[in-house]
Amino acid sequence: MMNPERPSPASSDDTANTNVSDEHLSPPSSPSISSKSSSESNASTSSVLSAGSSAGSKPVVSKRPRPPVRSWTASEEIALLEAVVAYRQKHGLLPSPTALAAALDGRLRRGEGRLGAQEVAKRLRALRARYDKAALRLSRGTVPVKDDDVTIYRLSKDIWAGMRKAKMEKKNRAADAREEPREFAELAGLYPCLSAEVEAIDVVSGAAAAGMLKRAFRRIGDDTAARLEAQAKKQQVAEAKASEQLDHLRRDVARTLMKLIPHELP
Fold first, then answer.
1. Would you say the pTM of this structure is higher than 0.70?
2. Could you state, in order of their start, the residue ranges of all structural domains in the chain?
3. Under 8 Å between Cβ of 225 and 187
4. Within 10 A of 108 (CB to CB), how many other CB atoms are there?
5. CA-CA distance, 143 to 135, in Å (whole number)?
6. Which of 99, 161, 211, 219 has the smallest set of CB atoms within 10 Å of its CB?
7. Per-residue pLDDT, 169
8. Where is the composition biased (Low complexity) (predicted)?
9. Tens of pLDDT along 19-41?
10. Cα-based distances in Å from 262 to 256, 257, 266
């Protein structure tokens, strides 16, 4: 008795051709059939990708998108400045970015992660720079227009007005001078580092100003001389350390090269 001959399974090419024909000729399929076709399409796509990677091609690596950086709103900047003012009134000094971040945690940028000290410090620097520019514009007659800008300016003034004034006074401060000049040798004994710098500058100043700076140095006041002496001494110490490090490096290089000399001998 002969068994009935079973039909052979269709090849993948025949199946693909059949599906394409059904898609163009048949009416829209039901949702169940559509989901089945979608899963089959995903499976075929995965097989193509795996085949491509096995053939030696580099797999496609999807890059994780960076989280969006949201700029601060005016209300958030006002809340930050108010916290700085309140802390200063209570403690008599400006808070650290870490203390501010801890105090404002949960009050600002809710739902976007914790507020970090680095972000607070960066925003305070931006607000400080903005206040300096606004103060300069105000001195020229340009006033803030928006209510939020006025509030931010007033809060910034409460925080940084004194610092800006001290900075301007320091910048415009004239050197204190003595009516009676002192001998250069006396000043060299009191301020040796500063005197050495004066001599060095006088040497390279040119023939037109030769000796002029040394004569002016004789009228320098003690406050200015002490401040410049500290700066000159600090610079000379730094140069001495750098010179010592350079000498150490050169000795190390020389020792290393000496070990290589036998390889250069015939």
1. no
2. 74-176, 184-260
3. yes
4. 21
5. 9
6. 211
7. 61
8. 31-60
9. 444 444 344 444 443 444 444 44
10. 12, 10, 9
